[in-house]
Amino acid sequence: MDAEDIAEQLDADSRIMDFVYMGVKDKRLADLWTPVKTSFEPSPVYPQAVKVPSISTWSESCLIFSERAHAIFRLMLADYGEFLPLDVQGFTYYIFNNLTDVEPDMSKSWYAAEGVRRVESLVFGADAESKLLFRSSWQGCSACFCNETFKQLWHEYEIEGLQFAEDLLDEGYLSV
């Protein structure tokens, strides 16, 4: 499912760029959203996988939540973004449109070189400790970050599907 598919199903071609930049720009989409029909594709990394995880990465800083994971986290994450329903072969899943931006600790974070937008070091300060899920526009909103509380809740409720990384620049993992 891509931005064009979403815009077509929602009859919202004029807002296609909002879907392209979902999770990157501060655009709320719930006002025009109705359940979008889609399906899951096999992962190129795990093509033999048959079980759909409770929470999974989708694109950039957005996540996909199963009905169970949504029921658990819906109220806890209400201040950090919005849940947008999907119809996946008769089952309801939710895109979490991450709308919470946290700036890094600039005394410990920097780009690779002047004028180069490749992050060399990324460290968040105290502001991030109070946010369950967030993104960083300074980093390019190319990942979803979480605090230790989210990670503990994930374990407590026996949620599956995410891999956590302490290295905030480790691609493909939810960073803590």
Automatic annotation (TrEMBL):
<protein>
    <submittedName>
        <fullName>Uncharacterized protein</fullName>
    </submittedName>
</protein>
